[in-house]
TrEMBL record:
Pfam family, one: HTH_18
Annotated protein name in UniProt: HTH araC/xylS-type domain-containing protein
PROSITE patterns, per database record: HTH_ARAC_FAMILY_2
Keyword field: Cytoplasm, DNA-binding, Transcription, Transcription regulation
HTH araC/xylS-type domain mapped to chain residues: 177-289
Superkingdom of origin: Bacteria
PANTHER family according to UniProt: HTH-TYPE TRANSCRIPTIONAL ACTIVATOR RHAS, HTH-TYPE TRANSCRIPTIONAL ACTIVATOR RHAS-RELATED
Species for this entry: Paenibacillus swuensis
This protein's record includes keyword Transcription: yes
Length: 298
C-alpha cells in the first residue's frame, strides 16, 4: 500500500543573535539630568510614571506615563526630569542581526509614540514584562528561569515591533528595497544550501548567477544592495558565513576540520585563512577566547 504524506505546515530554520545592554528601570528626581550622548544600539525609552524630558537630535519630547521613544543608533540624546515629583522610566538598548527587522526599524523615521497610539499599545505588554523582571532582579545576574522569561519577553518585543512597524509604514516598498530583499533571500538560500548539503566551493551559486536569475547586471545588483543595506552582496554573504562559523566554533563537540567541511571549504587551511581575514584571529584562537569569556574551563 502506497504511503501518503501531506505537509500541513512549515517554518524556516531560525538562527538569530541579539544583544541587550543597559536594560534598567530607574526612579529619578526633578534635579536629575543625563548629558547628551550617542551609542551604536537601538533604544526604547518608556515612561512608567511621572513626566520626563528627552532631547533627540535637537528636538525636545516631554514624555508622560505610557509614552515611549524609539531611538536609532547614532542619534544624540539627553534627558531631564520635568516635574517636581520626578519620574520612573524603563530603558532597553539592543542590537539584532535579523535583516528584515533592521530594515523596518531603520525605515521608521518617527521617534515619539504617545500612550494610546497603536504602536505604544502593542509594544507596552512586552515592556511591562521586561520591567517586572528588572524590578525583581537587583543583582548582577539572573537565574536560568528568569533568563528564559527575559528572552521570551524580548522576542515578544521584537515581534510587536516588527508587526507595528510593517503596519505603520503602509507605504509601498521602493523598487530598490524590493530588489535588495530578493537579493538577500537568494544569498541566504545559498548559505542554507551550503549548510544542508555541504556544497563544495566550486559548486556554490555565484553572485553573477544570482544576478542572472534576477535579470540584472552584477554592477546593478551591487549598487542597489549597497544603497539599501549599506554593504555589498559579498559582504552580506561573508557576514552570514561568519555567523555560522562562529556558532559552530562555540559547539565544542565539533572539530575545526568538521566545521570547514560543513561550510563547504576544500581544506581546513583555507577555512582558517578566510576566518582570520574576517575576524583577525584563527578559528582556534576564537574558540579559546570564547572559553575565557564564558568562564568555562577547557
Amino acid at each position: 500500500m502506497e504511503k501518503y504524506v501531506e505537509e500541513l505546515g512549515h517554518l524556516p530554520d531560525v538562527r538569530v543573535s541579539f544583544r541587550l545592554m543597559g536594560l534598567h528601570v530607574r526612579k529619578v528626581d526633578s534635579d536629575w539630568t543625563y548629558p547628551s550622548h550617542e551609542h551604536p544600539l537601538f533604544e526604547v525609552h518608556w515612561i512608567v510614571e511621572g513626566t520626563h524630558g528627552m532631547v533627540v537630535n535637537g528636538k525636545r519630547y516631554d514624555q508622560g506615563a505610557g509614552d515611549m521613544l524609539v531611538i536609532h543608533p547614532g542619534m544624540t540624546h539627553s534627558c531631564v526630569s520635568v516635574q517636581p515629583a520626578g519620574a520612573t522610566y524603563f530603558c532597553v538598548h539592543f542590537q539584532i542581526d535579523d535583516q528584515a527587522l533592521l530594515e523596518a526599524l531603520l525605515r521608521q523615521k518617527e521617534v515619539y509614540f504617545p500612550r494610546g497610539s497603536d504602536f505604544a499599545v502593542e509594544i507596552t505588554p512586552s515592556l511591562e514584562s521586561l520591567c517586572t523582571i528588572a524590578r525583581e532582579n537587583k543583582g548582577a545576574g539572573l537565574p536560568v528561569h528568569q533568563q528564559m522569561k527575559a528572552y521570551a519577553a524580548v522576542f515578544e518585543l521584537f515581534g510587536a515591533l516588527g508587526e507595528q512597524l510593517s503596519q505603520h509604514h503602509l507605504q509601498v516598498r521602493s523598487e530598490s528595497e524590493r530588489l535588495a530583499g530578493l537579493i538577500a533571500q537568494k544569498i541566504e538560500a545559498s548559505v542554507q544550501n551550503i549548510l544542508l548539503h555541504g556544497s563544495n566551493e566550486n559548486d556554490r551559486v555565484t553572485l553573477a548567477e544570482m544576478a542572472g536569475d534576477l535579470n540584472i547586471s552584477v554592477s546593478h545588483m551591487n549598487r542597489t544592495f549597497r544603497k539599501v543595506l549599506g554593504q555589498s552582496p559579498r559582504q552580506y554573504m561573508s557576514s552570514l558565513m561568519l555567523k555560522e562559523a562562529q556558532f559552530m566554533l562555540r559547539q565544542f563537540s565539533v572539530s575545526i576540520d568538521e566545521i570547514s567541511l560543513l561550510l563547504g571549504y576544500k581544506t581546513t587551511g583555507h577555512f582558517s585563512r578566510q576566518f582570520k581575514r574576517w575576524t583577525g584571529e584563527a578559528p582556534s584562537e576564537y574558540r579559546k577566547g570564547f572559553v575565557r569569556r564564558s568562564g568555562n574551563v577547557g
